[in-house]
Amino acid sequence: MANQHANHSINDFKQFVKKHPKLIKEVRKEQRSWQDVYENWVLFGESDPIWDPYREPEEASEAVPETPQKNDFVSKMVTAVKKMDVNQMNEQINKMSQSISSLQSLLNTFSGSGQKHSQPGSGQHPFSFRKD
């Protein structure tokens, strides 16, 4: 089922690209990558104003009447959060936590004061996460 969704998404993106020939030219001139275009398409959708410069002139006039809610930053952020993979976010947060812990350890090692006192919890990660 995930494969069908991916194929459907790819076909929708292909249709979107066909409607925006200026976008194709920009990618071919290596000003943008297809990955960048696809990620923006997934995050913002087809009707976002960022695509206006790439539309055909008659299509751009059709896309002008939009609801103010679609242009709202908060609604875009909510949409982006809904599309996030929770496991991937958890993995990234754990990596960041380990990096911060390593940095704290490094700073404690090279602190110039010469004090040898240990902070409580210095061997632990700075953030406490549990699995639900």
Task: Indicate the topology.
Layout: H1 2-18, H2 21-28, H3 34-44, H4 57-63, H5 68-71, H6 73-82, H7 86-109
Number of strand segments = 0
Counted by DSSP, the helix tally is 7
Describe the largest sheet: none
- In sequence order, what are the helices and strands, one letter per element? HHHHHHH
Q: Which structural category do the helix and sheet elements fall into?
A: mainly alpha
Radius of gyration: 23 Å
Contiguous low-pLDDT stretches (5 residues minimum) are: none
N-to-C span: 26 Å
User: How much of the polypeptide forms β-strand, as a percent range?
Assistant: under 5%
Please tell me what the overall shape is: elongated
Rounded mean pLDDT score: 77
The helical percent reads 55-70%
Question: In words, what does this structure look like?
Answer:
With 132 residues, the chain is an all-alpha fold. It has a domain at 2-86. The protein contains 7 helices and no strands. The chain has helices at 2-18, 21-28, 34-44, 57-63, 68-71, 73-82, 86-109. It is elongated, with a radius of gyration of 23 Å. It starts with a helix and ends in a 23-residue tail after the last helix.
